[in-house]
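Can't paste images in this forum, so I'm doing it all in text. The chain is below; anyone willing to post the predicted structure tokens underneath?
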Amino acid sequence: MKYLNLSAFIILLSLTTCNAQNNEHQNNNDGQGEGDTHVIENKKPIKNRPFNPKNLKLLSEFIDTLLLDRHDVEIGIFLKDDSLNTSREIEIVFSGSSSIRRWNTLETDMDKISVLNRGFGGSTIPDAIYFADILFFKHNPSKIVFYSGDNDVAWLKSSTEKISKSYKLLFKLLRSELPETKIFILSVKPSPGRRQFWPQMQEVNQFLATFCQENNKCEFIDVSSCLLDSSGNFNKKLFNNDNIHLNEKGYHLWADIVFQAVNKN
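Text version of the structure:
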């Protein structure tokens, strides 16, 4: 919980920058003064500030990100589990959104490796930053496998730049507390139910691949290509009926790829 203020500050800073850029763009294009003063910079008391509908979407995204009590049940389960297993030693922590949480065969797929599944559904990269102590630090793993970005693109509608900044912040946080831990970042997967977001997800994956190449103890694992057919189309046979989450066949492919990656390092 100690990272809430840092996370909130980063998000607020991002929103302020985004607002400033939007207003600068308006000034350059139409020269109109309406909307040039945005809510964050207005010095009037909140109750007297004029409503600017252009800020509504940004405010909504900010509130959604900070309403972290939506994860209370799953985080509570993690805490209870930790309290009952205080002496266990974990080699690899897997964390991220529902693609990790739904990986029910993770322990057997990773064979004799001591793994801990700390995936929680509907989560985003800022959520992982907020709960980093519970998810990662307290377990002091030698390796971390992380998957996120799916919901950041499709739900938060975050830009690739914003997602990149979130990943950089998460990596910096992990590196500061776990300097010797190897971090594996899984690519954002293509899913038939979110095909309209695939172009941006590919941009995120390109960033992640480059980012991992430029940083020590960081490796990008491509778990996207295996979900496409030979023509580059979505392979629906690897997904559940919701066309978003993997089925058993999909996880079997992931297991082979991830197991080989974490075992050679």
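The radius of gyration is 20 Å. The CA atoms of residues 45 and 86 lie 49 Å apart.
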